[in-house]
């Protein structure tokens, strides 16, 4: 068995250089440098067999734009699998980035963080030949909009999954209270100065009363989620304490 990282990402992209700087900066940089995370890239162009190193071709049946050929892409996918097997590491879970996939969310990030390796397949042009798409374990979208390529989506997946890997964030507590961790948006945050352009930091945060601060934060998270993401709010299981916090806010508003 090799010295496997806690999480390995295998990226297939025509622009692998986009991932180089990303793996060097901030918390990602530290996690890669200390071996917690590894980002390996392959360019399907390196798996072409023709003189022009073609990765795309015109669509059968006609139509505008070009489509990514399946042969170089699948050869690159299989090369990743072969290398992993050679190191005694498991084959990566294959994720195809596409606007047609299920929409990525925190639940999906948590699910990926449990897997030892994730392969992220980035399309370009008009997309990827369906026969290569069929070899992915799942298809994932960053949201209901269309990007030029899958790289930005892959970067978002890598960053959101990596910060769930133990040791990547300096302060694991910040994960617990973050937006979407408990189906809630996070409470508002404040730092210095105490007064900024006439707007004061809420007095409770300066009170030193930790119980009151916790209650205020929970109340603000509930109010914010209800106002901004009613569909998330509707799926919350509110307990008596939460209902009291909401009633308290309504009474304060009426007063
Ligand atoms: C211009 S898009 C192709 C869109 C495709 N013709 C369609 O309508 O479904 C090129 C590539 O960008 C990536 N992409 C675009 N939008 C995306 C999204 N919302 N989420 C994830 N990947 C996306 C995919 O990898 C896709 O193959």
Report on this model:
- Helix content is 38%, strand content 16%.
- With 255 residues, the chain is an alpha/beta fold.
- It folds into two domains: 7-162, Alpha/beta knot; 177-254, Orthogonal Bundle (Trp Operon Repressor, Chain A).
- The strands form three sheets. A five-stranded parallel sheet has the order 2-1-6-5-7, sandwiched between helices. A two-stranded antiparallel sheet has the order 3-4.
- Strand 5 (93-103), helix 4 and strand 6 (117-121) form a beta-alpha-beta unit.
- Helix 4 crosses helix 6 (151-162) and helix 8 crosses helix 10 (240-254).
- It starts with 6 loop residues before the first strand and ends with a helix.
- The mean pLDDT is 95.
- S-adenosylmethionine binds at residues 97-100, 122-124, 126-128, 141-143, 145-150, 153.
CATH C-level label of the largest domain: Alpha Beta
The overall pLDDT, averaged over residues, is 95
Q: Architecture of the largest domain in CATH?
A: 3-Layer(aba) Sandwich
The side-by-side strand order for the widest beta sheet comes to 2-1-6-5-7
SS-based class: alpha/beta
Query: Tally of extended strands?
Result: 9
N-to-C span: 66 Å
Largest sheet: 5 strands, parallel
CATH-defined fold name of the largest domain? Alpha/beta knot
Query: Which kinds of small molecule does this entry bind, naming each only once?
Result: S-adenosylmethionine
The amount of helix comes to: 25-40%
Q: How many domain regions?
A: 2
């Amino acid at each position: 068995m090799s010295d496997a990282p806690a999480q390995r990402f295998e990226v297939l992209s025509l622009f692998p250089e986009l991932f180089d700087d990303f793996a060097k900066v901030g918390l990602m940089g530290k996690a890669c440098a200390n071996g917690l995370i590894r980002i390996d890239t392959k360019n399907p162009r390196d798996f072409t067999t023709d003189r022009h190193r073609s990765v795309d071709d015109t669509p059968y049946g006609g139509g505008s734009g070009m489509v990514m050929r399946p042969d170089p892409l699948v050869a690159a996918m299989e090369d990743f699998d072969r290398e992993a097997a050679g190191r005694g590491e498991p084959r990566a879970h294959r994720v195809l980035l596409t606007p047609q996939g299920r929409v990525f969310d925190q639940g999906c990030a948590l699910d990926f963080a449990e897997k030892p390796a994730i392969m992220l397949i980035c399309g370009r042009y008009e997309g990827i030949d369906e026969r290569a798409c069929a070899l992915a374990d799942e298809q994932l979208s960053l949201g209901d909009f269309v990007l030029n390529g899958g790289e930005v989506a892959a970067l978002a997946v890598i960053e959101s999954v990596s910060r769930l890997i133990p040791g990547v964030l300096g302060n694991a507590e910040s994960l617990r209270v973050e937006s979407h961790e408990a189906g809630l948006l996070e409470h508002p945050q404040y730092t210095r100065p105490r007064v900024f352009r006439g707007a004061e930091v809420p007095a409770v945060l300066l009170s030193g009363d930790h119980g009151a601060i916790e209650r205020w934060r929970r109340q603000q998270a509930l109010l914010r989620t209800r106002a901004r993401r009613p569909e998330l709010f509707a799926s919350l299981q509110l307990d008596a304490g939460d209902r009291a916090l909401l009633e308290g806010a309504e009474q304060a508003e009426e007063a």
